[in-house]
Each structure stands twice: as structure tokens, then as C-alpha cells.
Write a structure and sequence with these properties.
- By secondary structure, the protein is an alpha+beta fold.
- It has one domain.
- It is 53% helix and 15% strand.
- It is built from 5 helices and 7 strands.
- Helix 1 packs antiparallel against helix 2 and helix 2 packs across helix 4.
- The two termini are 26 Å apart.
- The model has no long low-confidence stretch (mean pLDDT 84).
């Protein structure tokens, strides 16, 4: 109910494609670099396999990062489903995973929220709780539209409901709309 299935599916498909293309590309470019270096004189065109190698590594890192966010989001969505009162404290989620406040796991959760992996979920950064759809609808916040703004601290693009606040997943500063 709180999991954005289309976001999960598209992220996983894109990550698998990136991995399927990236891993062979790294190997091919590495073989190319080593064969050019092994031939003796290093020609100018060695830059091509080096660029391919760097691009492929970046593609693999992006795929792994996306899979990591999707994994964290999947666990958090499961935690939302198990909740009955409409409020899920961040500390409860972190505690069940043995993580602490301010950890990289917390930043991944907030990044997953900012990237739209959850639906009908708002994060109250002041109280450090997620408010689920039932509670949001009661308060009338669910009807407020999302607006696009940039973080005043780091300039990262964010989507936020009018009149609400969130923690920027890039720099950690609180942003209010």
C-alpha cells in the first residue's frame, strides 16, 4: 500500500541493465588497456578504453546505489505495512535494523522517500516520524500538491508538499516549503 511499485520495478530493471552492460564493458576496456600497454609504446588512442572503463565503473556504481536504495525502501515499506497507528518513528525503523540516528542507513531512507519510493507517506523532520496515509488524509495534508524547489543550502532539486518540511537527502539540512 505504501510502496510505489512502478518506481521499484523501473529501478530494479534499470539497475540490472546497467550491471549487465557495465560488467562486460569494464572487462573489455580493461583487456584493451592492458593489451595496448603490453604492446610497448603507448599510442594516443589509449584514451578510448580508459574512458570506456571509467564510464562503465560509474554505471556499475550507479546500479549498485540504486539497488541499495530500493532494498532499504523495500524494508521500510514493509515496516509501514506492519504499523497500525499511522505514525512510524525513524528511530523504530533504525532500531529494528540495529542502526543509529544520523547513520548512512537513515540517509538512504530519506533519499528513498525523496525519490518517490513511497506513496501516501510524509516525513515530519521535526518529530522524525513518517506519517502514513490515514493520518495524512485526516489532517488534510494529503490534498496539498507537491512543488519543486531547490535546497537553499546545497541547491539539490527536491519535491515537497506545500506547507511541509523535509530533510534534504543530499546535505541533511531542513527545508520548508
Amino acid at each position: 500500500m505504501y510502496k510505489n511499485a512502478s518506481k521499484f520495478n523501473s529501478s530494479r530493471i534499470a539497475s540490472v541493465v546497467f550491471l549487465v552492460l557495465g560488467i562486460p564493458s569494464v572487462l573489455i576496456s580493461l583487456i584493451g588497456i592492458l593489451s595496448i600497454i603490453g604492446a610497448g609504446d603507448i599510442p594516443d588512442y589509449i584514451i578510448l578504453p580508459i574512458i570506456m572503463f571509467i564510464a562503465s565503473v560509474i554505471m556499475i556504481i550507479a546500479a549498485i546505489a540504486t539497488l541499495r536504495i530500493a532494498g532499504v525502501a523495500s524494508y521500510v515499506a514493509w515496516a509501514f505495512e506492519k504499523n497500525s497507528d499511522g505514525i512510524v518513528p525513524m528511530d523504530t525503523i533504525l532500531g529494528k535494523k540495529g542502526k543509529s540516528k544520523g547513520s548512512s542507513y537513515e540517509r538512504l531512507i530519506l533519499k528513498a522517500h525523496a525519490k518517490g519510493y513511497f506513496i501516501k507517506v510524509a516525513y515530519n523532520s521535526t518529530e522524525r516520524v513518517f506519517e502514513l496515509s490515514d493520518r495524512i488524509e485526516e489532517a488534510g495534508d494529503y490534498e496539498k500538491r507537491f512543488i519543486g524547489i531547490n535546497c537553499p543550502n546545497c541547491g539539490a532539486p527536491l519535491k515537497i508538499r506545500e506547507g511541509s518540511s523535509l530533510v534534504c537527502p543530499t546535505c541533511g539540512s531542513e527545508v520548508k516549503a
